């Protein structure tokens, strides 16, 4: 159940109208990394963990609801930045700017230029935000990632918060309005907060790497193929110990020869790892049973109800 509180979570303000920045800010409203995408992603993800992970359900719903509040903050800011556009467009009889098009070529070209700052602000929804990105592309449900596996979804959310954070970081220098900068700084900060919350939630699920259930083959999990010519770079991504599986990286300098000499890698023997194929298969079976039981045991028998109502 939702209800709306008319107070914004953050006191959004603007110093003066700025329709051009309003267009840019649409990225945070209806863009691929905007607030609506985040809200819908966490909202959808929450359903699959309602029974097996009620604590994660609670967290995802809380953050999804906060993101809807952030969508409201961005929308309110865009509305204020558009200033009197809506009112001027309503005055179609006498004072509408389009009448100036009759005053000469220069005036006509200037009006067209202003309109193409974002035509939708003048035509489709005069003086109001739209669920599009800054180029007018409509918001799309394919922005949402929900895999019904928390070890995947939480990582996806962490990456999404990073993209949203850098989006606000790039928006802040584009406005000179100190009030708008403060609002964007608040929203950017909350992205970092949510990243840490998702990260902490992921750490409560053990094991959580690799994501999902199946483990990885020790024959291929620590191979680095040098597939470029020129000066080669070495670092912790291709030498030393791998970060999670703690295997020794195997640097394959002649990738073509390696593939040909091992029958397309099929006959390759594991090197630099303590894991064996047998251990991997045992872990696959063990984890599959645990995760399956985790979900199935949380399902009630007989008729089901999503929640129980209690007087408080």
Automatic annotation (TrEMBL):
Instruction: List the cofactors.
Output: Mn(2+); Ca(2+)
Indicate, by first and last residue, each region the UniProt record lists as having compositional bias (Basic and acidic residues): 266-294
Which annotated residues bind Mn(2+)? Answer: 35, 67, 70, 161, 194
Span list, region Disordered: 262-297
Which superkingdom heads the taxonomic lineage of this protein's source? Bacteria
CC cofactor note: Binds 2 manganese ions per subunit.
**Molecular function terms from GO:** metal ion binding
- Record Gene3D superfamilies: 1.20.1260.10
> What InterPro entries does this protein's entry cite?
Ferritin-like, Ferritin-like_SF, Mn_catalase, Mn_catalase_dom
- Record-linked SUPFAM superfamilies: Ferritin-like (SSF47240)
Question: Mind listing the UniProt keywords for this protein, alphabetically?
Answer: Calcium, Manganese, Metal-binding
Q: Where does Ca(2+) bind?
A: 58, 62, 226, 228, 230
- What family does the Swiss-Prot or TrEMBL record give for this protein? Belongs to the manganese catalase family.
Q: Know the name of this protein?
A: Mn-containing catalase
State the organism of origin: Parabacteroides goldsteinii dnLKV18
């Amino acid at each position: 159940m939702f209800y709306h509180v008319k107070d914004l979570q953050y006191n959004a303000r603007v110093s003066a109208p700025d329709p051009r920045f309003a267009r840019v800010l649409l990225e945070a409203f209806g863009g691929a990394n905007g607030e609506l995408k985040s809200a819908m992603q966490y909202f959808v993800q929450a359903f699959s963990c309602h029974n097996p992970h009620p604590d994660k359900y609670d967290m995802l719903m809380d953050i999804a609801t906060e993101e809807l509040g952030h969508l409201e903050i961005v929308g309110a800011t865009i509305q204020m930045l558009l200033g009197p556009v809506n009112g001027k467009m309503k005055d179609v009889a006498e004072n509408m700017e389009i009448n100036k098009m009759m005053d000469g070529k220069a005036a006509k070209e200037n009006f067209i230029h202003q309109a193409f700052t974002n035509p939708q602000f003048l035509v489709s929804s005069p003086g109001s935000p739209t669920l599009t990105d800054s180029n007018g592309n409509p918001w799309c449900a394919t922005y949402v990632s929900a895999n019904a596996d928390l070890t995947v979804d939480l990582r996806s959310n962490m990456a999404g918060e990073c993209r949203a954070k850098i989006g606000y970081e790039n928006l802040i220098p584009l406005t000179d309005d100190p009030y708008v900068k403060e609002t964007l700084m608040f929203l950017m900060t909350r992205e970092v907060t949510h990243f840490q919350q998702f990260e902490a939630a992921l750490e409560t699920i053990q094991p959580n790497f690799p994501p999902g259930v199946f483990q990885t083959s020790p024959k291929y999990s620590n191979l680095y193929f040098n597939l470029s010519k020129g000066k080669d770079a070495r670092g912790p991504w291709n030498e030393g110990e791998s970060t999670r599986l703690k295997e020794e990286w195997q640097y394959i300098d002649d990738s073509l020869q390696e593939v040909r000499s091992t029958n397309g890698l099929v006959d390759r023997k594991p090197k630099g790892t303590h894991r064996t194929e047998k251990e991997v298969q045992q872990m696959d079976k063990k984890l599959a049973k645990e995760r399956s039981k985790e979900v199935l045991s949380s399902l009630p028998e007989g008729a089901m109800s999503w929640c129980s109502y209690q007087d408080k």
